[in-house]
Amino acid sequence: MISKVIDGNSVSVIPEDSDDLLTLRRIVKKGDRIIGDTTRVIKQEKDFSRPDRGERIKIRISIEVEKPSLDNMLDRLRLRGTIVESTNESVAHGSHHSFVVKINDAITIFKKNGR
After folding, report:
1. Are 87 and 61 in contact (CB under 8 A)?
2. How is 48-111 classified by DSSP, letter by letter?
3. Would you say 70 and 25 are in contact if contact means Cβ atoms under 8 Å apart?
4. Which CATH number fits the domain that encloses residue 38?
5. β-strands 96-102, 55-71: how paired?
């Protein structure tokens, strides 16, 4: 795993194999904050847009983790939580989102009080 310590409470990581995802699953706990790049469907409210469809956009968000889970078969870590910060004003803070962390995906982990 490639990692860079930012300060006493935060680290940026890039998992390089499935063992790294397992390690991240053990490190990330409920209440931690995760920052990373993801995609999200934004529904457009235009005159001729379909209400059941939206546009998938790339954004950088920060979530407070509620539940981490590991999928060994697909080599991915799912981090579910509520959005705390976003680079797009259309994304509501407090709404739910899941990060899917795969091999070679970069995330930043912020621990509360250095846990």
Report:
1. yes
2. T--TT--EEEEEEEEEEEEEEEEETTTTEEEEEEEEEEESSTTSPTT-EEEEEEETT--EEEE-
3. yes
4. 2.30.30.870
5. unpaired
CB hemisphere CA count around 65 (13 angstroms): 26
pTM value is 0.81
The CA-CA-CA angle for residues 97, 80, 61, to 5°, reads 45
Asked if residues 65 and 34 have their Cβ atoms less than 8 Å apart, the reply is: yes
> 98: Cβ–Cβ under 8 A, 6 or more apart, which residues?
78, 79, 80, 81
Write the pLDDT tens digit of every residue in 43-99: 766 555 555 667 788 899 999 999 999 987 888 999 999 999 998 887 888 889 998
Whether 48 is covered by a domain: the verdict is no
Is pLDDT at 106 greater than 90 in this prediction? yes
